[in-house]
Amino acid sequence: VQLQASGGGSVQPGGSLRLSCSVSGDSLRYYAIGWFRRAPGSEREGVSCISEGEEREYYADSVKGRFTISRDNAKNTMYLQMNNLKPEDTAVYYCNADKLQRVYWGQGTLVTVSS
After folding, report:
1. Rg of the Cα trace of the chain?
2. What is the pLDDT of residues 26-67, one digit of tens each?
3. How far apart are CA 104 and CA 19, in angstroms?
4. Which residue in 21, 34, 41, 64 is deepest, having the highest Cβ count within 10 Å?
5. How many angstroms separate the first and last alpha carbons of the chain?
6. Pairing of strands 17-24, 2-6
């Protein structure tokens, strides 16, 4: 199973970005999915995740109301819509897929929020 993240870039505070993560090698419908990030000088933190059947959803307090996780099982792709971005959102963002505790990671995509 391979994950390919994309969509990062540079944006001004208040701007938006949508990250995508395409999955190959298996059907995404069987996976819980998530997005994590690692800011410069910090440890990796969980941003958002959603269970396989979408019955459970999690957002870090720092992104609630601004970020939205979603999935398109038909396209085998997951997304993270990020609105009202803040400088503290600057980080490398990683996508993650988990099936029966087998966890796969994407390569990371850099998001920079700066004026």
Report:
1. 13
2. 999 999 999 999 998 999 999 999 998 888 999 999 999 999
3. 17
4. 21
5. 37
6. antiparallel
